[in-house]
Amino acid sequence: MKNANEVCCECIRDDYLVSVIQKDNKCGECSFCGKDKSFLITIEDFAEKVHDVLEKQYQQTSEPERSYGFHMGFDELEQDGEPIEVLICDIASVDESIAEAILDYLSTNYDPQGKDALCGGLKYSSDCKYEELSPDTSYYYEEWESCKRDILNKSRFFNSTVSCLLAKLFNTIDKIKPFGTNSVVRELTSKDSIYRARIAKSEKQVRSFLSDVSLELGPPLENASAGRMNAVGISSFYGALDRDTCIAEVRAPVGSFAVIGCFVPRKRLKLLDLPRLQYAWTKEAGSPFDSNHTDLVARVAFLKRIAHEMSLPIMPGEEDIDYIPTQIITEYLASREDLGLDGIIFKSSQINTDDDELGNNVLLFKNSSSVKREKKYFVEDRIMLSDKVDIEYTLTSTNSKKSKGRASKPTLKVDYKKTEVRKITGVKYSTESRTVYVSDR
What is the mean pLDDT of residues 172-184? Predict the structure, then answer.
């Protein structure tokens, strides 16, 4: 092999960097894989690009101080960070041989040599470790806080400042790929279920709800009250991906009944899955060699903050004000036809769980929230005696007309086989203890 000085695009797995190299239109034989007539970059130029990324996006970690251990010896503490050679492989998307050549160039050109190296200051020694810098979200934080003040105190509608910020945050939201998934946009199909509950105060009301689930448990036809994601008067479908979350969200009191309807999509629904943002990592926020990469990383980090804000508990009596920012975001996303979103998945503030599959709420925008009209059912209940008294409901189709008021092309239909009634016999709270100290002074 000739002097290992040039790398071809075939040896680099970073699409953005490959496109940059191809623009230079320099072709020849690769010093590493031997392919001829390939687009090339010199190790020197490649290493300088890697150096620039490390300077702006990473910091070198220090060796931990030794502490005198429990067994009268020194505890060995692990140094934080990733070994420099491994990190170069990751940043440059190359194999070890190319990373070694890059590291050798950087060490020769940026580290002290000879006796000077004994005084420290080495940045590219093989035992150096680096960690990624925390994203600087101050710009987005300040802009968002300013927008919230404008929304609450100045101009709520037709606010160009808010529109510009939301556009910058969400323009390429579908391109963010969280670890382990393809996108933060999640599709629900006819194989999925969305649950929606309503509180019944009596057995008579239970039977009334069961007789026409599409009407009684569907979204309000008119006079919709304001919610976390919808302004007053705008009907939207709120549901959950599991029944327990559904019950928790309606805050059913002890002694009441939760009538739970199961709604199935009649077409593919595209939902912005906000909980997935917590798994978004910088490698999926574009190439580190892209000049916009730092901003992309900050944007992803701030979107995580927004997702958290949209799931925070709201104190009773404060809904009218605290719901406004999340309502604005929802209306903006619903208006963006180019994103093609039907709704949002967000974490419930009523469920405390580490299980990603539980505690997920669903909001369907107005245009995707209609339910297929169904015939009314005759509901008969009977007491079942076994180890405990149980009540069974039997639904019999009637010849009555379908409930009125639903759209001609509904998005959802009721799955009566998964309809359920639960009597609320108790409520359990998750709590966090805080100590109170009393001073005698």
Answer: 78
Three-state SS for the chain is CCCCCEEEHHHCCCHHHHHHHHHHCCEECCCCCCCCCEEEEEHHHHHHHHHHHHHHHEEECCCCCCEECCCCCEECCCCCCEEHHHHHHHHHCCCHHHHHHHHHHHHHHHCCCHHHHHHCCCCCCCCCEEEECCCCCHHHHHHHHHHHHHHHHCCCCCCHHHHHHHHHHHCCHHHCCCCCCCCCEEEECCCCCEEEEEEECCHHHHHHHHHCHHHHCCCCCCCCCCCCCCCCCCCCEEEECCHHHHHHHHCCCCCCEEEEEEEEECCCEEEEEHHHHHHCCHHHCCCCCCCCHHHHHHHHHHHHHHHHHCCCCCCCCCHHHHCHHHHHHHHHHHHCCCCCCCEEEEECCCCCCCCCCCCEEEEECHHHCCECCCCCEEEEEEEEECCCEEEEEEEEECCCCCCCCCCCCCCEEECHHHCEEEECCCCCCCCCCCCCCCCCC
* 8 Å CB contact between 155 and 146: no
What pLDDT, in 10s, does the model give residues 74-89?
556 788 899 999 999 9
Whether residue 69 is predicted with pLDDT greater than 70 in this model: the reply is: no
Please tell me the distance from the alpha carbon of residue 414 to that of residue 213, in angstroms, as a whole number: 7
Least confident of 144-153, 285-294, 364-373, 405-414: 405-414
Measured CA to CA, the distance from residue 188 to residue 267 in angstroms comes to 8
* pTM for this predicted structure: 0.81
pLDDT at 65 over 70: no
- Render pLDDT for 156-170 as a digit per residue (tens, 0 to 9): 666 788 889 999 999
CB 247 within 8 A of CB 257: no
